[in-house]
Amino acid sequence: MIVSENGVIVEFFITPASCADISALKQMNIDLPEHEVLYGDRAYSSASFEAELQEQANIALVPQRKRAAKNQHPGYLKFLQASKRKVFEAVFSQIARIMPRFFV
Fold it and tell me: What is the 3 state secondary structure string of the chain?
């Protein structure tokens, strides 16, 4: 799911739970304006896909880095990622709250 800064769902893609987050993102037909920035958690860390998205759509993918990663983001970017993540988590929790817990 891609969410704007204001918490509006811009795009979404539903996959089985067994599908990796980065695989789902690669399957999405991302229709965003050029020069947009996508912030993601550690599941979206893929240097090759970051480069591909930048080259093909001129969109920057900025995932959180794993602690052992060599190419860590500067502190200000980590802070920005955390604040953007809170918006996403709030939207996702609102959706989860109205979804059924079990399917019969």
Answer: CEECCCCCEEECCCCCCCCCHHHHHHHCCCCCCCCCEEEECHHHCCHHHHHHHHHHHCCEEEECCCCCCCCCCCHHHHHHHHHHHHHHHHHHHHHHHHCCCCCC
